[in-house]
Amino acid sequence: MIRYSIAIVDDEETIRDSLDIILSDEYDIHLFTDAESFLSFEDRKKLDLVLMDIGLPMMSGIEALDIIKKDNSDLPVIMITAYEDINMVITSMKSGAFDFILKPINPDILELTIKKAISSISLVKEVKILQEKYLNENQPCFIGESENIENVMDFINMVSKSPDTPILIAGETGTGKELIARAIHARSPVFRGPLVTVNCSAFPEELIESELFGYEGGAFSGAKKGGKKGFIEEADNGTLFLDEVADLSPAGQAKLLRFLENGEFYKVGGTKKYVVKTRIVSATNKDLESLVKKEEFRKDLYFRICVVKANIPSLNERKEDIIPLAKHFLCEFNQKFGKKIIGISDQAQAFLLSHAFTGNVRELKNIMERSVLIAKNDILDISELGLHPEPFSEKKEAGMASLSDLSDQGMD
Q1: Diameter of the chain by CA atoms?
Q2: Is 230 within the bounds of a domain?
Q3: Of 77, 207, 222, 352, which one's alpha carbon is 20 to 30 angstroms from that of 175?
Q4: Per-residue pLDDT for the chain (412 aa), expressed as one digit of tens each?
Q5: How far apart are CA 53 and CA 101, in angstroms?
Q6: Shared domain check, 322 and 309
Q7: 140 part of a folded domain
Q8: What is the span of the domain harbouring residue 363?
């Protein structure tokens, strides 16, 4: 259960003590005698709610409220006043106060007002805890609580320690293979180096060699005067992520194999040998072993890129992660669209859990983006999910387009 942190700012000792006694069993309480001491509190940004007297000595509660809202507009502040001065109340509400309560404080009214304020920030608090556990600026990772994804991340943490061992990431479309590649790079000894992403299906056979290895000036008609670095050289002392590696042309497979054997290559049209230290991370949504048996993918290359293999579970295989992910995306799109949706209804959550996600995390993200965009209330309901009453099947009904068909970078 999440414990919320509340600051009580009041110059009356009896008020502070009584509120502390009433609230401390359920909340973490911080007591302050004046606005100045509260505003100098080092952990002020970790607070979830403020109860503040309007009639404070020196700096008034309303003056402090202005400063609080400039610093953290989302922090709910409940003002306390000893008398029902309508002008004070109006001023505080215009300055961004969440609500106000009167002295002497009625415990029942206090509890209801606090619960209402907490509900307005509970989603953000819950997602923030998840993000702090699984994400930070330099360590991209999955949000999830399932054993399946925990095992994947434990495995990634272990294999990432090697700076050059090739890794193959296998998983369905939309499971987040690029995110895993970024996590591998961020956790590796070469994390300060570049991460270069190449979609192998995007280049025709005649261009793949020059794109991967670069070319010297004048190598062919239209070549740049000074030549061009290839993706492999750009990824020197870093990581090269080969997305959709199964779609690499036969010529591209042969040239990549030669590089993986000794780390050496020649640019197109050149005779100078280049040596780079580049970690190769590949990804595919196809069964490479089956393609090898059909001789549609080189066996020797397969063994080179698949020294270590990470299998990413589909979203249907980690149902426990659906609601945490949905809430994460809800917060993301709240910010994007300037919405203040505070949660997902129980009915909508149950429907998401029963839905067959053919597009995995990408599909869920697109569903949440659409839902937040069209939502009119502060709780997402089942009608706003835009899903068919029956779970999606592999063969969609005529006229029904799955949101997973939408493109979304980083969810391959």
Answers
A1: 87
A2: yes
A3: 207
A4: 688 999 999 999 999 999 999 999 999 999 999 999 999 998 898 899 999 999 899 999 999 999 999 988 889 999 998 766 677 878 888 889 999 998 889 999 999 999 999 988 888 787 777 655 554 444 445 677 788 888 888 888 888 888 788 999 999 999 989 989 998 998 888 888 999 999 988 887 778 888 898 888 877 776 777 788 999 999 999 999 999 999 988 888 888 898 898 888 888 888 889 999 899 999 999 999 999 999 999 999 999 999 999 999 999 999 999 999 999 899 889 989 999 899 999 999 999 999 999 999 999 999 999 999 999 999 999 999 987 654 444 433 333 333 333 334 345 5
A5: 10
A6: no
A7: no
A8: 316-405
Residues facing residue 240 across a β-bridge:
196, 280
Specify whether 151 is located in the same domain as 300.
yes
Do 183 and 167 have their domain in common? yes
Residue 412 contacts residue 243 (beta carbons within 8 Å): yes
CB atoms within 10 A of CB 87: 7
The rounded distance, in Å, linking the Cα atoms of 409 and 174 is 9
For residue 142, being part of any structural domain is answered with no
42: left (phi over 0), alpha (psi -120 to 50) or beta: alpha
Same-domain pairing of 201 and 342:
no
C-alpha to C-alpha distance for 367 and 269, rounded to whole angstroms: 49
SS (H, E, C) the chain: CCCCEEEEECCCHHHHHHHHHHHCCCCEEEEECCHHHHHCCCCHHHCCEEEEECCCCCCCHHHHHHHHHHHCCCCCEEEEECCCCHHHHHHHHHCCCCEEEECCCCHHHHHHHHHHHHHHHHHHHHHHHHHHHHCCCCCCCCCCCCHHHHHHHHHHHHHCCCCCCCEEEECCCCCCHHHHHHHHHHHCCCCCCCEEEEEHHHCCHHHHHHHHHEECCCCCCCCCCCCEECHHHHCCCEEEEEECHHHCCHHHHHHHHHHHHHCEEECECCCCEEECCEEEEEEECCCHHHHHHCCCCCHHHHHHHCCEEEECCCHHHCHHHHHHHHHHHHHHHHHHHCCCCCEECHHHHHHHHHCCCCCHHHHHHHHHHHHHHHCCCCEECHHHCCCCCCCCCCCCCCCCCCHHHCCCCCCC
Strands 238-243 and 195-199: parallel
Per-residue CA distances from 111 to 30, 71, 312 (Å)? 17, 26, 45
